[in-house]
Amino acid sequence: MFRSAAEAAAVRAEKLESGHAPILIELFLAGRPEQTSNAYRRDLEAYALEMAFPNPSRAVNALLQNGAGAANAIGLAYRARLITHGLAPATINRRLASLRSLLMMAQRLELISWRLDVPNVRSRSYRDTQGPGDHGVQLLLQTANAQCDIRKSRRDVALIRLLHDLALRRGEVCRLQLADIDLLQGSLSVTGKGEVECTTIGLPGPTRCAIENWLDIRGGDPGPLFFAFDGAGRLRTDARLSGGGLWSILRTLGRRAGIEAWPHGLRHTAITKALEVTNGDLRKVQRFSRHRDVRAVLSYDDNRGDLAGTVASMIVARDR
């Protein structure tokens, strides 16, 4: 028997009043990679804190309970506060996307019948697509190799190789398990951003050698491919290297090498170089970078060629 619109609304209200927000949040976070789930959780906590709610569940209920108009008003107020605080457009847009995704889940579960309609902040993506460049990568490898602790040296060289040679993302590197490495076939299996199935990537010679050297230190026990070191310099075989830990390693090595270095910068350098060595073959580079949208690769190609600067020079030359 079909419910009337009023009856359906009453059922949704009853569900919300009975405390479905915690269950909604739990379902929203479930089944995602750990890093993604943690990022969404932090975004919901940031929303609750910014809007002065005692916890994320109460903050989510405020969005759900009073209809689309009230939810959009809250969302727009949240957006305005983030802008006032001077947060980067990418950060603001990510936090808004988290709320929109959560409410899409609520709509799927028939808790609401509408979607959050709060626009992103305009931003320019991929402004810096160069990274540290070839010379910077070589300086990082030399600095990592020169460390007194051979365990850290071999681990860090393998990290740099994976980030640069295969253009892996920080989260992809940190999620790697020993079982993802096949040295006999010379390949690595990686689960990409937002994906559940693995992609197999062939290992170039120097990358394979760096991983083999690290495995001589790490050993063959199952588990994460990369571990952290504690404050006393002990290898923590019970502690997977975190994304923050990987960021700190690159920043420290960069400071020692006299350059600015960060994990995604190595990926930027790799993609820019891939465009150069393939003579701008977007299809091949998209496969290499594993971008879903070729427009992301186009951003790298535009910046690599400085198309705006080239056209500007042509205009000036014509006026002479």
Please report which band the strand proportion falls in: under 5%, 5-15%, 15-25%, 25-35%, 35-45% or over 45%: 5-15%
Instruction: Please give the radius of gyration in angstroms.
Output: 24 Å
What is the total tally of β strands? 5
Distance between the termini: 79 Å
Q: Might you state the CATH topology name of the largest domain?
A: hpI Integrase, Chain A
The sequence of SSEs as H and E is HHHHHHHHHEEEHEEHHHHH
- In helices, the fraction of residues equals 55-70%
Biggest sheet record: 3 strands, antiparallel
Count of the separate structural domains: 2
* Shape field: globular
What's this model, at a glance?
The chain is mainly alpha-helical. The protein contains 15 helices and 5 strands. It is globular.
General description of the model:
- With 320 residues, this protein is mainly alpha-helical.
- It folds into 2 domains: 5-108, no CATH class; 133-308, Intergrase catalytic core (hpI Integrase, Chain A), CATH 1.10.443.10.
- The protein has helices at 5-17, 21-29, 34-50, 56-65, 67-84, 89-108, 133-145, 150-165, 170-175, 205-218, 243-257, 263-277, 282-289, 294-305, 307-319; strands at residues 181-182, 187-191, 198-202, 227-229, 235-240.
- A 3-stranded antiparallel β-sheet has the order 1-2-3. A two-stranded antiparallel sheet has the order 4-5.
- Helix 2 (21-29) crosses helix 6, helix 4 crosses helix 5 (67-84) and helix 5 (67-84) runs antiparallel to helix 6.
- It is globular.
- The mean pLDDT is 86.
Topology:
Blueprint: H1 5-17, H2 21-29, H3 34-50, H4 56-65, H5 67-84, H6 89-108, H7 133-145, H8 150-165, H9 170-175, E1 181-182, E2 187-191, E3 198-202, H10 205-218, E4 227-229, E5 235-240, H11 243-257, H12 263-277, H13 282-289, H14 294-305, H15 307-319
Antiparallel strand pairs: 1-2, 2-3, 4-5
Helix pairs in contact: 2-6, 3-4, 3-6, 4-5, 5-6, 7-8, 7-11, 8-10, 8-12, 12-13, 12-14, 13-14
